[in-house]
Amino acid sequence: MESVWMKDTEIRKREALSGDMEAPVAVIGAGLTGILTAYYLKKARIPAVVLEADRIGSGQTKNTTAKITSQHGLVYERLIRTFGNRMAQHYAAANEEAIGEYERLIREKGIYCDFARCPACLYSGTDRERLKREAEAAKSLGIEASFGTDCELPFPVAGVTRFEKQARFHPLKFLAQMAEEVEVYEQTKVLKAENEKVETDRGTVRAEHIVFASHYPFMNVPGYYFARMYQERSYVAALKGAERPESMCLGIDRDGLSFRACGDLLLLGGGSHRTGTNQKDRAKKGCRYGMLRERAKEFYPGCSEVFRWSAQDCMTLDGLPYIGRFSERRPNWYVATGFGKWGMTSAMVSAQILTAQISGRDCPVADVFSPQRRFTARAAMEFMVHGAHTVKGLAKHLLPAGDGKIIPNCPHMGCRLEKNPEEGTYDCPCHGSRFDAEGHLIDGPAQRDCSEGAKNRSL
Ligand code: FES
Questions:
Q1: Which of 228, 410, 455, when mutated, tests ligand 1's pocket best, judged by the most ligand atoms within 8 Å of its CB?
Q2: How far apart are CA 360 and CA 376, in angstroms?
Q3: pLDDT tens-digit profile of 334-378?
Q4: Is any atom of ligand 1 closer than 6 Å to the C-beta of 271?
Q5: CA distance 144 to 117
Q6: Is the C-beta atom of 428 inside 6 A of ligand 1?
Q7: What is the DSSP string of 183-220?
Q8: Model-level pTM greater than 0.90?
Q9: 430: Cβ below 6 Å to ligand 1?
Q10: pLDDT digits 0-9 by tens, 237-252
């Protein structure tokens, strides 16, 4: 199913890598993070080549709702409590600066990508107090935030936390133009990385620095990101004939929805669940697209759905992205992952931090994003939950295989795949790899089709 962004954007095709080459930096992944990182490196006079398994923007960049915000759910009160004021301030400043940098870049390059500043709101039907505290916490960190009860949504709310001067844009129009500034090789699948060498199916790149910007890092060791992240799916319907709020709104209650205007359409999002758990969840909650359709009819009778699509997000144990050095054992490798639902802003934050680190510049805000930051109590709790899913998925691996040509074990580490009837895919409940009905790989960390044999693990 195509997202609304794909209908009107053509991104120029690039050649595949042919043979071996050398470059100061190899960036793996030509989504927004990879392209922006290569762009800022080039500005810092450090040439980078971007290696993409498929096409530019063919991963998660095309499935976003394209909000550029420093409002990332209920984050600031928790950050202050867990990491203290200084690190919370770094998180706020990095994201606020990212919004400003998008605007500056779009103006400087004259990129026509529907960029608009607008407020972003969190709403709740019941929980005024948490929203109030979040507004206070954000304000204390220098964000223009307030609490109130006025809301443009078609149902009553108990409270609203409003951040001013946030933004939205068309991610593929922006990406198409930015990609013109950097050297990209498409249809070039990275098979593995070793010290300063990146091996692809088209040749080898020797690089002093390697950046993993491919959504979920496919190298299990070092870094062990598979033990520190899981993936979530969420769903979007683009509606015609629905009222469009000026603000981008996100519910903080269980089953809260997301509202965001896009031209004459309204993007209604929701239905998040851990990847690979849709079947069980569906029995309880019904079809996700069906749920969005029902809510759309209830709120906006007479509207019609013109697009629908789903997104896959990497979730970290403490809810903050991993941006920085991949591992202490690989000082020349870098990673940008675990953006949660906030991929657009995190892509810009990543590009700034990684460019500073690779060029040897100081970057004070990097501490809160560091993959080596300290393990919090919340992370420890999530680790147990995440581990339980993995143990269950691995235990199921011992059950007899089903019929047909799909081997129902994941080639990443062998967990039993679950059928996702909503999307006709096979999804892994352990770390979130996905495969189509024929067993072709859709999303990693697995690196190959599941019909190629679940016995070969990628460790
Ligand atoms: Fe890790 Fe499937 S994604 S076992």
A1: 410
A2: 29
A3: 999 999 999 999 999 999 999 999 999 999 999 999 999 988 888
A4: no
A5: 13
A6: yes
A7: EEE-S--EEEEETTEEEETTEEEEEEEEEE-SSS----
A8: yes
A9: yes
A10: 999 999 999 999 999 9
